[in-house]
Amino acid sequence: MNDFAVDRKTKTVTFSREFNAGLSLVWDAYTRPEILDQWWAPKPWTSKTKFMDFEVGGRRFYAMVSPGGEEHWSIQKYTSISPKTNFKLLNAFADKDENPELPGSEWDLTFSEQNGKTTVRISIYNESLDRLDKMLAMGFKEGTAMTLRNLEELLAILLQQSEKHANG
């Protein structure tokens, strides 16, 4: 993640990351809960998806869980899906009973592959400057960098397992 940028005028955070893996695997890592929960939290926190319905209008309700059991819940509602190229969602912090804490943010994730490497570009529009500032104060930049490292490590493991399986 080399291009992390905050634009306070547009209340937007943008960044991208290139992964040494094909588009299908990276897409699955962002869209399948059993894979998402293996990387979507900065260590030593973990991700716990209560439910996920990856379709337009569907939602993911999940928590980031500390080693001591503290839970921070979020709701993501999918607003647009173009398979293997882009999806958009509304994200809001929430309580454990799925009550969103508004205002939220709008995420736009774009996937592209070149020479076996996949780049994910993410733009996050915040409905308020207060929310943007809160997100940054909570360590969003550092947490995201750690989380994307988790994904990079997981993709390497999944690729090794796939090669082992292919070679018998």
Question: What structural class is derived from the secondary structure elements?
Answer: alpha+beta
Rg calc: 16 Å
> What kind of sheet is the major sheet?
8 strands, antiparallel
N/C terminus separation: 35 Å
Helix content: 25-40%
Lateral strand order in the biggest sheet:
1-2-8-7-6-5-4-3
Helix/strand order: EEHHEEEEEEHH
- Mean of the pLDDT scores? 95
User: What is the strand content?
Assistant: 35-45%
Number of strands: 8
Question: Which residue ranges are poorly predicted, with pLDDT under 50 across at least 5 consecutive positions?
Answer: none
Provide a quick synopsis of the model.
This protein is of the alpha+beta class. It contains four helices and eight strands, in the order ββααββββββαα.
Features:
168 residues; alpha+beta; eight-stranded antiparallel β-sheet; 42% strand; globular
